[in-house]
């Protein structure tokens, strides 16, 4: 047999392996775990992963190009740069704005960046790691996004950037944020890691700011295991993002390419000898944060399912509305931002003041019945051990962030939850409320 015939046979057997190894197990109430998130895949992801491995092209290759093109087509953007995680995407996105090539617009140590205190640390840590100052603004309940009334009050003469996440799939008020950015000439980075597929005024989130980021961790809308992407329509920023991602090198040739610029041995950089090989010229203090082609092979297959995944998340969200909406005296239900169409990452619930049970008692009961829950990430960031003593500013009060830290949790909307799981969740919630009414 030729290697092509053997390859074909391997891929056919991979399909059979998927059916035997990953057939969906029967859900059993009280015995099967109801995950808050997780991977949803079929034989196509597995076949493309094996196909990529048989090439043994271990860095970016044909699947990386395909995956990036699918993301670009979906969002309608010009530049998609794949990285090894959503956190790396945030680090690269922010670091790119510190480049001296941006002149007076570059971010410098001591510059202030508008952020929120109720969120995930990876949206804030790049600010601190680049010696800038996060300015924490409180969030609104029940959208869990930045309080726009408080946002402009946070602006000072040092403010240079806005770096916010669309919380759990719910877009923040992009009209207010982009208007503020235009008024004060600020950079905007959209952390779109939890919101890939959400829309604002009919346009996908991640396409409004100067740069946006996506995560492909298994909990997110699509997965490559670990993985992420940085998005921009600005060609200069795209080159800077690539440089920071690829060791800080000035050369922008793709893997396996040479002399794309046509000037590989005929330029002057710094105090290097004239004509020094452009492949080994470093114009930024960068990292190596690239994705592998095997990860991209999975992502390319997942992209074909993204629209359906988003619809299923919306359906599960509405099902939760019916479950928790029966108890308005106890629960504050989540609300979409005006003009937004969220592809909900999860269903977020806050207990009202005076509720005869606590968040922790309720979530402990859910988890004891194998229904996973999560708090809203860091709660109030400034109270986390890593941030105590760090250089930040609080714009005003963080009362809602504190309330969220104590009274809020979320539960999964992900496509792996079918009506069997949703019905079981309803039974468990109802039984708890019956036993714990005031």
Short description:
With 438 residues, this protein is an alpha/beta fold. It folds into two domains: 51-302, Type I PLP-dependent aspartate aminotransferase-like (Major domain) (Aspartate Aminotransferase, domain 2, 3-Layer(aba) Sandwich), CATH 3.40.640.10; 306-436, Aspartate Aminotransferase, domain 1 (Alpha-Beta Complex). It is built from 13 helices and 14 strands.
Q: Tell me the series of helices and strands, N- to C-terminal.
A: HHHEHEHEHEHEEEEEHHHEEEHEHEH
Q: If strands are numbered along the chain, what order do they take across the biggest sheet?
A: 1-9-8-5-4-2-3-13
Tell how many strands the DSSP assignment holds.
Answer: 14
What's the CATH superfamily of the largest domain, by name? Answer: Type I PLP-dependent aspartate aminotransferase-like (Major domain)
**Morphology call:** flat
Looking at the structure, the CATH topology of the largest domain is Aspartate Aminotransferase, domain 2
Describe this structure in words.
This protein has 438 residues and is of the alpha/beta class. The chain folds into 2 domains: 51-302, Aspartate Aminotransferase, domain 2 (3-Layer(aba) Sandwich); 306-436, Aspartate Aminotransferase, domain 1. It contains 13 helices and 14 strands. Helix 10 packs parallel to helix 13. The chain is flat, with a radius of gyration of 23 Å. The mean pLDDT is 96.
């Amino acid at each position: 047999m030729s290697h092509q015939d053997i390859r074909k046979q391997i891929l056919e057997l991979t399909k059979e392996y998927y059916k035997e190894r990953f057939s969906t197990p029967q859900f059993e109430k009280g015995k099967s775990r109801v995950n808050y998130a997780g991977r949803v895949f079929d034989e196509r992801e597995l076949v493309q992963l094996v196909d990529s491995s048989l090439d043994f092209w271990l860095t970016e290759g044909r699947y990386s190009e395909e995956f990036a093109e699918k993301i670009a087509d979906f969002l309608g953007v010009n530049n998609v740069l794949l990285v090894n995680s959503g956190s790396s995407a945030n680090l690269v996105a922010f670091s790119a704005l510190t480049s001296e090539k941006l002149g007076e617009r570059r971010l410098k140590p001591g510059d202030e960046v508008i952020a929120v205190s109720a969120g995930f640390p990876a949206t804030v840590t790049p600010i601190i790691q680049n010696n800038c100052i996060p300015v924490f603004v409180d969030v609104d309940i029940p959208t869990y996004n930045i309080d726009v009334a408080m946002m402009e009050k946070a602006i000072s003469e040092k403010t240079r950037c806005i770096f916010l996440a669309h919380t759990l799939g719910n877009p923040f008020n992009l009209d207010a944020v982009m208007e503020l950015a235009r008024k004060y000439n600020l950079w905007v980075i959209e952390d779109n890691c939890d919101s890939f597929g959400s829309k604002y005024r009919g346009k996908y989130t991640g396409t409004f700011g100067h740069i946006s980021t996506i995560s492909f961790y298994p909990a997110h809308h699509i997965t490559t295991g670990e993985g992420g992407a940085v998005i921009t329509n600005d060609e200069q920023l795209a080159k800077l993002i690539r440089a920071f991602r690829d060791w800080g090198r000035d050369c922008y040739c793709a893997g396996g390419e040479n002399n794309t610029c046509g000037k590989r041995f005929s330029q002057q950089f710094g105090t290097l000898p004239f004509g020094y090989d452009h492949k080994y010229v470093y114009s930024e203090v960068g990292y190596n944060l690239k994705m592998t082609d095997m990860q991209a092979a999975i992502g390319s297959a997942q992209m074909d399912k993204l629209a359906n995944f988003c619809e299923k998340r919306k359906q599960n969200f509405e099902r939760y509305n019916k479950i928790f909406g029966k108890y308005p005296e106890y629960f504050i239900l989540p609300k979409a931002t005006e003009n937004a169409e969220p592809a909900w990452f999860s269903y977020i619930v806050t207990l009202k003041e005076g509720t005869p049970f606590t968040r922790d008692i309720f979530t402990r009961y859910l988890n004891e019945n194998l229904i996973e829950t999560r708090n809203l990430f860091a709660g109030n960031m400034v109270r986390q051990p890593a941030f105590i003593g760090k250089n930040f500013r609080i714009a005003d009060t963080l009362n809602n962030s504190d309330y969220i830290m104590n009274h809020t949790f979320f539960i999964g909307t992900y496509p792996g939850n079918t009506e069997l799981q949703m019905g079981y969740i309803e039974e468990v919630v109802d039984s708890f409320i019956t036993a714990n009414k005031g």
